[in-house]
Amino acid sequence: MESAADGLALVVEGLGRAYDGTRALEGLSFEVIAGEIVGLVGPNGAGKTTALRSIAGILPIQEGCVRVCGHDVARSEVAAKRQLAWVPDDPQPFDSLTVEEHLEFTAALYGVTDWRARAEQLLASFELTEKRAALGGELSRGMRQKLACAQAWLPRPRLMLLDEPLSGLDPRGIRSAREAIRALALAGTAVLLSSHQLELIEALADRILILDRGRRVFLGTLAEARILHAGASGTSLEEIFLAATGERDRAPGSSGAEPP
Amino acid sequence: MIYGSPALVLLLRLKLRGLVRRQWRRLRTPKGFVLTAIGLAAFVAWFASLAFSVVHPAPPLAPEAAELRVRAAGAFLCLITLGTALSNRGLYLPKNEIERLFGAPVSRADLVRYRLLANGLRNLLGGIVLGLFGAKRMPAPGLAFVGILLGMQTLPVVNQILAIALGGLERRAAAIMRRAGSLLLAAAVAALGVLVFVLLSRRSLETVPLAGSWLADVLARDADPFAHPLLGFVTLPLVAWARMIAAETVPQFLPWFLACLGLHLVLAELCARVPIDYRELSLHTSARAASRMARLRRGGGVAATRASRGAASWRIPWLFGGGPLGAIAWRKCASMARKAKGAFWVSLVALLFITLFASRLVNGPPEEEALYTPSLIAILGTVYLCSGLRFDFREELERMDVIRAWPLAPARVFLASLLPEVVLVALLVMATILVQALLTHGLSVLVGGVLACLPFLVFTWVALDNIVFLLAPVHFVPGQDGFVQNAGRRMIQACLLLLSFLVFSATGAGGFVAGYLGAGALGASEAVARVAGVAGLLAVLFAGDALLVLAGGAVLRRFDVARDRG
Lengths: 260, 566
Prior knowledge:
The complex is a heterodimer.
Chain A: H1 2-5, E1 8-19, E2 22-33, E3 37-41, H2 48-55, E4 63-68, E5 71-72, H3 77-82, E6 84-87, H4 99-110, H5 115-125, H6 141-153, E7 159-163, H7 171-186, E8 190-194, H8 198-204, E9 207-212, E10 215-220, H9 222-230, H10 237-244
Parallel strand pairs in A: 3-8, 3-9, 6-7, 7-8
Antiparallel strand pairs in A: 1-2, 1-4, 4-5, 9-10
Chain B: H1 6-27, H2 30-55, H3 63-87, H4 95-102, H5 108-135, H6 141-168, H7 171-200, H8 212-219, H9 229-234, H10 239-245, H11 250-273, H12 279-298, H13 324-339, H14 341-361, H15 366-388, H16 400-404, H17 410-439, H18 445-471, H19 483-521, H20 526-558
């Protein structure tokens, strides 16, 4: 339990994974401390979702080690899972449960006793109050995303894994979700946030982890990234991202060719 | 044949070529090659046996009896066609085609022709199978085969005309018709229940209310059900088809064949030219079908039903406790309560048929009947109901990542996910066995023994089925390509399941024999020895089921959402 005592919510050491001979993750190592938001970015196929799923215990760990609040995900799977919550990129709610019943189910699953008051609060925060009696199968893409967030927030996890949490949300929903993520971190939860919306990462993340072809190409603060990759204080995360992943040359307009 | 727009014909050709290309690509991997070989071998063996029965037919039916059978089968197929047309009104086009084709510069008539052509091609294999199967006892099997093939090509045309015509009616009227359809179904199930009750309690068919005397006549040998004025009138258009298929010689066949072919072409052209704007309903039908396909891919079988909005207000009791295990089971209970309406009806009908079948099959001294009939109902009921009521991992394939993230040991997740389905199936089969026993020989120790073993038997079957599924999870949707490979895969899975079940049953029988002989050796009476045998059987089944829970947990633990999602 040393990492929990050190305030480390997540320790990833040498995480590796292969699919049919293709390396999806290669020796990935990083840590996230309690109350910290780490932004996970990378091009399509960089291994972001694979990393998040491995940490959540969804994918069996092939190589390396993942510890959540001191619990080894491979050896103490259940204990580790009790400490974390995960919001997938395309949530699939249970089509026969109502929104409210999803929260009741989550509360029982994670042993949350005072769930009713908290559920009311979360329904209001994620603008689901009017949809509380709707079945999972009736929800729109955005509502499904909000429900997945409410479920993840309910057990007050110590580590939150978010995979594209804002996709499908309307502007008001985006603002609510941003505020909720910030409040979660302020309350001491470590957040690992994967998104292609770089302005979101820029606004929320304390540190940034850039992956490319399964490898870590950068881990540090935005200021450090600017020094390392762009060298200019006003450079955006997009520029840093393109430089770090070698995509700047491939970006539209950068080659001098006009788009069609 | 009607071809319509050249662009649409090209699209059909390209789609066919794509289908062949995808099949060819599948053959290139060792796994694809093996599955294709097994699937093809199964199809070839099946076709060969069907073709052999046509070449070497059983004694043919007399032309009148053959005509009667064809008319009855035709009436049944038309009823199914009407049912499909009622639920899928308008012109069905797959979701990935509909907006592109509706927005394309082709006439609506050409779109209908394109759809008819596609449906005809799709129905070809079914027509060949039904043709081989149906022709073997006809007076001239070769002619009957051609006739059945033509009939199977005409059915989709009739379906399309009905779907477009019904689509032309006002939505409200269609909703009323759908409700009428549900009421008719309920009435049919109730009538079947009354019939089973009468047959089991060995009463006279004359006692069946309303249609008793007609039913007694129909079930009497060589009776003509179409002698009933209403049935005779409704099925009059089928006479031409019946005479064509039941013809003995070419001169008898040809006029009816030409008449049916002409009718087919006229109906197809009428279908293309009918002046009804079907677009809005077609979009609705297509979206509904796509959503159903998506649910089928997730769940398969009757569990693919959409959750009922009305049932959402029901409070689902926490039958298995309030902890994490109870929560998982509660979620399954909610799924069954809100989605199983259709499956429940189908299960009831199946149980009625199984009871009738088992009662008719077992004939012997009362003591044998009292044991074998409930045992047969238990086995057949378990196997059938478990294949229909898929409220287990087979409806969870798209949510396996969520399930894998739950903070609970995989063995407990496995147990909690299966328990509600096991309880439901066991209760349904138990109720059937009880009713059957009460109507025939009454309750006995043997029936009690069967009832005691039933929950373990159901759990064994469901657990084995799910373990085999989780080892190679694929949801095959009708119309999806790769059906040969899927047939191969299903055959391997079925063999694995049956083999495991047989080993399990043999071990259970060993437990019974050990208990029975052990008690006998200690000088116990016959009745006590039987009870000891059942106790031995129960002990073995319990231990086996506990092992299956652990095995299920291990399979769930090794499930890789990135690789095994089907």
